[in-house]
Design brief:
Belongs to the TonB-dependent receptor family. This is TonB-dependent receptor. GO terms for molecular function: siderophore uptake transmembrane transporter activity. By secondary structure, the protein is an all-beta fold. The chain has a single domain (24-645), classed as Beta Barrel (Maltoporin, Chain A). 2% of the residues lie in helices and 59% in strands. The chain is built from three helices and 39 strands. The chain has a 22-stranded antiparallel beta barrel. A four-stranded mixed beta sheet has the order 4-3-6-5. A hairpin with a 2-residue loop joins strand 18 (317-331) and strand 19 (334-351). The two termini are 26 Å apart. 45% of the residues are buried.
């Protein structure tokens, strides 16, 4: 896992296993500028620099994830156990990182057979079992992988994780009572030295008893009914790569993803978003005199369509096309990277009253330049700065609105739609400046530090009127919801002393709402864009220590995350939300023998939330941090997993 300008951390498959990750937040918590909320896979959400996952570009094996089905659920369904790497770009810095990346991008990559096969090995397998005490969860997984004819790689993986409701530190129920099932199949064939074609299919499913409003506390209200629900994702990809030399590295990806929520919402019981897309990216390296060039260029396309069955009266369709060009020009110790991106964004929606709806289209074009500077000062010091113009057109409304109906005391009614001729595209300017240091003072000892200041100015943020007082609005439309400036500081440092590794991080951000649009006559409530978080957040501090004992094949670890208290203004009102501080400590140990007959064995165990702290994430939607209405996080949790690779 990498991040911009030298990286905050190197988090890969090893971190997923040592932390016994069951949710993405278990491995993202150390990264400055990144926040993840949610107590189950049904509603885990990623935030970056004040922007929600609906303002990020998220992909899995190159397949864009756009599963906005229901505003109380997550858009991202993924099993950390199958992740081998994640490329994280905190903030908008490069034109390469895809459409709609207001706050950054996250590219998940799942494991391949080549990652698991040892030198000279043609076939192998890995079995794993795990236990989590807080929710009495048991997991079982198996992978089989191999290589034939020195060119054909195959992998099949399956996992099941069954669990009950967990408990917070103050004995509130959290999460769900269900079963997660995931399977992944991959095949890749290399031929004629420089060619490779790969196929993959993945299914991710959460099924069980979950609250209707999964992002609120289970005890939120009598209306937060716990019922049997299912949320699933299917992703299929085909990829072709051609790498004959530095003059051409070609990567072509086609994909299909379907997010489906099986839950009774209004008149619909099967809600989803289908996305099909393609990406053609190329990289060329060459020199012109004293200048070394790394040219990146390509084309992106995706099409998304919502559905809400059985009625499915008002499905929306979105098409997005993009071309980009970027050249990293290195001259001595200075690298200048100019880039430009062109996007065409088209959304087919509706206008008119029920029974007389007509097609309505939004069309936007945007040219977005960017430039980045990086200078190696010398003796381990470096400095960098960047500017990027950002753009995002209106997304699909949440999938449930594709039903075209809503429920009242009079029964099923039909929804009116209003096309907004005055809707403006969301644009902005993203600035970043910082410095870094990396030095070695012994063979296995080093120190590194990276610090950034960022500022992003968003204009004409878009929101949709999707729900009102727990019900679907009788009339749905899109509108601009004002402007927002977000600035902050991110710092990360690491000290390696032979077998001891110490790391610390700090995040500060400040959100300033401007030109807000009132949603009531009194002017006390405001429209808020779904691209943003619910409010500003307190400062985040992280600390991690790991000590390796080579003679015993052991790794010992400690992790701390602390959020400072803050009085933060709500994004949708003038109310001040009092965010309490909290600190959570984890300890963990890994045993992985490197030789003898036990080679291939790995045991990971840990005690998470050691002091049974009762706390709720500052990113939660509820403004209540004191009662059962809060979305409490799990209390003390013992996790253990045992795997064997052979």
């Amino acid at each position: 896992m990498t991040s911009s300008s030298g990286g905050y951390a190197n988090v890969d498959e090893a971190k997923v296993t040592t932390r016994n990750a069951t949710l993405i937040k278990d491995v993202f918590r150390d990264i400055p500028g990144v926040y993840v909320s949610g107590t189950s896979g049904f509603h885990q959400k990623i935030y970056m620099r004040g922007v929600s996952d609906r303002g990020l570009n998220i992909s899995i094996d190159g397949a864009k994830q756009t599963g906005y089905n229901f505003h109380h659920n997550s858009d991202l369904l993924i099993d950390p156990d199958l992740i081998k790497a994640v490329d994280i770009e905190v903030g908008a810095r490069s034109v390469v990182n895809g459409s709609g990346a207001l706050g950054g991008s996250v590219a998940f990559k799942t494991v391949d057979a080549s990652d698991l096969l040892e030198d000279g090995q043609d076939i192998g397998a890995k079995i794993k079992m795990g236990y989590t005490s807080n929710n009495k969860g048991y997991s079982q997984s198996a992978m089989v992988y191999g290589r034939a004819l020195d060119s054909l790689d195959l992998l099949a993986a399956f996992k099941h994780y069954g669990y009950n409701f967990g408990k917070s530190g103050n004995n509130h129920r959290v999460g769900g009572d269900g079963n997660d099932i995931n399977y992944l199949f991959k095949a890749s064939y290399s031929f004629l030295d420089a060619h490779k074609i790969s196929l993959s299919t993945e299914h991710m499913q959460y099924k069980g008893l979950y609250p209707f409003r999964a992002n609120f506390g289970i005890d939120y209200s009598s209306g937060n009914v716990i019922a049997d629900r299912k949320y699933e994702r299917d992703t299929h990809t085909i990829k072709y790569t051609y790498n004959p030399s530095d003059l051409l590295e070609l990567d072509v990806t086609g994909y299909y993803t379907d997010h489906t929520l099986h839950s009774k919402i209004g008149s619909a019981d099967k809600i989803g978003v289908e996305t099909v897309g393609s990406k053609i990216g190329a990289k060329t390296k060459f020199n012109t005199g004293d200048f070394a060039h790394t040219l990146r260029y390509g084309f992106d396309f995706y099409r998304s369509e919502s559905y809400a069955k059985p009625t499915n009266l008002t499905p929306e369709k979105l098409n997005n096309y993009a071309l980009y060009l970027e050249d990293a020009i290195k001259f001595g110790d200075l690298t200048v990277t100019p880039g430009i991106r062109y996007e065409r964004h088209e959304l087919k929606t509706y206008n008119g009253t029920a029974g007389n709806l007509k097609t309505y289209k939004y069309k936007f074009d945007a040219v977005s330049p960017a430039i980045a500077l990086d200078y190696e000062i010398g003796k381990g010091f470096g400095a960098f700065a960047s500017y990027a113009r950002i753009f995002k057109g209106p997304d699909l409304m949440e999938g449930m609105l594709a039903s075209g109906t809503y429920i009242t005391g009079r029964g099923t009614q039909y929804t009116d739609w209003v096309g907004n001729d005055n809707l403006k595209k969301t644009t902005g300017n993203a600035y970043e400046i910082g410095g870094r240091y990396k030095g070695e003072f012994a063979e296995r000892s080093s120190i590194s530090l990276i610090a950034k200041y960022f500022r992003t100015e968003y204009k004409n943020l878009i929101m949709d009127t999707n729900a009102a007082r727990g019900r679907i609005n009788s009339t749905v439309t899109r509108r601009n919801a004002g402007n927002v400036d977000i600035d902050g500081v991110e710092i990360f440092s690491r000290l390696n002393l032979d077998t001891l590794s110490l790391a610390a991080g700090y995040t500060h951000q400040k959100v300033k709402y401007k030109d807000r649009v009132a949603s009531n006559a009194a002017g006390t409530s405001f429209y808020s864009s779904t691209y943003l978080g619910y409010r500003d957040l307190g400062d985040k501090y992280t600390f991690n220590a790991e000590y390796t004992i080579p003679q015993a094949d052991l790794l010992l670890g400690y992790n701390l995350i602390y959020f400072a208290k803050k009085n933060a203004m709500s994004a949708s009102s003038n109310s001040i939300v009092k965010l309490p501080s909290y600190a959570v400590s984890d300890v963990y140990v890994t045993y992985m023998p490197d030789s003898s007959r036990f080679k291939g064995l790995e045991i990971n165990a840990g005690l998470y939330n050691v002091f049974n702290k009762a706390y709720a994430s500052q990113t939660q939607q509820s403004e209540d941090f004191a009662t059962g209405n809060a979305e409490w996080e799990p209390g003390r949790n013992f996790k253990v997993s045992v795997s064997y690779k052979f």
